[in-house]
Design a protein that fits this description.
By secondary structure, this protein is α+β, with helices and mostly antiparallel strands. It has helices at residues 19-27, 29-32, 41-56, 83-86, 115-129, 145-154, 176-180; strands spanning 4-5, 9-13, 62-69, 74-82, 99-106, 135-141, 169-175, 198-200. The longest helix has 16 residues, at 41-56.
Amino acid sequence: MHAFTTERLLIRPLISEDEHFYCYQYTDKKMMRIVGEPLTQEQASAAFHRALKANKLEQDTVRTWAIVDKATNDIIGTQALSWLAAKQATKPSSLPIEQVEIGIMLATKANGKLLPEEAVSAIMEYGFKQLNINRINAFYANKNRATQRILKKIGYIFEPSLQDNTTDNGYQYFDQHQWNGMIITQLFPEEIDKTEPTVTDSRLTV
């Protein structure tokens, strides 16, 4: 598990000093209003220590990174790749493939600056190039318009036939061959939502 950087971000493995911010994310009502009920402080702390432990396992289960603003050296979010969640509901394939589910949470102050796109694109590149992942899956609440716009901007595929019509959640995916065929030169802002927290996947801490 490695750290990597973008123009404005340092994305590094979660460390013990991140517990305060991590717990803030999952106990804050505004951050969690799209995900579900906020966790208690005790639940959030337990989830944090599970994430730390999972990062140290040799077997790939869930890997969690902190997202740090290089300009201020402040942690502004977390993101994760989950091999466990990916097994629950993914695009059908005739052959076994290496796939994960992506999750990201960014503090509201980080929105409106294209930082979600930068962070997600960076971890996708790491997953495809360093971890040799074949497919990255994204699950989100349908009411989470900000995340849907980000996924569309990056190029995630939405297939109506793969949606779970029994829930209020959406699903999109991105394959390695798509990534290899893309040249991302710049992400241009469209309608930037400065109030909605960026969140995909509510299951990473369950």
